[in-house]
Amino acid sequence: MLLSIESSCDDSSIAITKIDTNELIYHKKISQELEHSVYGGVVPELAARLHIEALPKILEECKEYFKDLKAIAVTSTPGLSVTLMEGVTMAKALSLSLDIPLIAVNHLKGHIYSLFIEEDTKMPITVLLVSGGHTQIIEVKSLNDMKIVGSTSDDSFGESFDKVAKMLELGYPGGPIVQEYSSAGDENRFDFPIPLRQSPNIEFSYSGLKNAVRVQILKLGELSLQDKKDICASFQKTAVAHLIMKLKKYFKQQSPVRFAIVGGASANLHLRKQIDILLKQFNCDELLLADLKYCSDNAAMIGRVAIEQYKQNDFVGIDEIDIAPRVKEL
Ligand code: KG4
Ligand code: ZN
Predict the structure, then answer these.
(1) Does the predicted model carry a pTM greater than 0.90?
(2) Closest atom of ligand 1 relative to the 295 alpha carbon
């Protein structure tokens, strides 16, 4: 078995996975959404302190598996340095005391492998990763052959929902609340500009849209509940339209046979619906989605990647493990 740890942002999570069958034996996650909600976003130092409390609590429940463990896996990149550090420190201590090797896992690969937790899936897959930290199109051929072919030059898709929610004082995380408000709003009331509409490049940008929303809020002054719902709906429509417009360009060039959406923001229903329509237009009939419980950050997806790394003897020395807040390549 493998024990995997995830602490790259505001979720403390540990999983135990069987190496030969991929079976998830144990999985627990403690989210910090409530604690960060008052600040309208994740406060790194607070997140780190909460990981220090939560991770040992979860680990306590895993003790019965210690004797069966063959390796310890941990997210080492990308993420918040101070929170990654908490998981990595725990992983190092376990690796030393149990005398088993360490596996350093890339969080983005974890999101991709969330597709493989409950079933085996064929490759190649073109993956849209939409989370609080990332908006990327990734061509996945194998564990060691993944290429980022489009990404955001500023804010991410999920982050833009968080920021709009913060401007409207709706709490954190913004995605689910903005989606809920949108369902009762008029998406055509405000005409927000679709980002990078004229650019031929496959790249994303959300800072301009966020600013357009900010200007609209200032213009309205005092906001009624309906104003907020209409802003959410108009924003969501535009944020998704931007993704779809760029994906359309990608599909025209590449005609992928299999497509997947992963990451916390892949839970967005409007996005799922629009992607469905897009795939039909391009005769791509395989849309893969991870179970909702594995869309947001979790250790089960980290464990699933780690199984593949274990089979490749991809271990890292205790003094060699690098904590890197950002990654350019996979
Ligand atoms: O993958 P994740 O749990 O954490 C990161 O690795 O960032 O993604 C969390 C992000 C947050 O920004 C949250 O607002 C967004 O995903 N999100 C959504 C929805 N549910 C979560 N964004 C849009 N619509 C949703 N339904
Ligand atoms: Zn994530």
Answers:
(1) yes
(2) 1
- Closest Cα to residue 243, out of 298, 325, 161? 161
Of 80, 114, 161, best ligand 1 pocket probe by most atoms within 8 Å of the beta carbon:
161
Tens of pLDDT, residues 71-86: 999 999 999 999 999 9
CATH number at residue 242: 3.30.420.40
Measured at the CA of 88, the angle between CA 87 and CA 91, to 5 degrees, comes to 90
Q: Tell me, using a 6 A CB cutoff, whether residue 133 lines ligand 1.
A: yes
Chain-centre distance of CA 17, in angstroms?
20
In this structure, the answer to whether residues 269 and 159 fall within a common structural domain is: yes
Query: Radius of gyration (Cα) for the chain, nearest Å?
Result: 20
With 0-12 / 13-18 / 19 or more C-beta atoms within 10 angstroms meaning exposed / middle / buried, residue 37 is middle
Q: Same domain, yes or no, for 139 and 247?
A: yes
Q: Which string of DSSP letters, residue by residue, matches 55-70?
A: HHHHHHTTGGGGGG--
pLDDT of residue 40: 84
The rounded percent of the chain whose pLDDT value lies above 90 is 94
Asked, for residue 321, whether it belongs to a domain, the answer is no
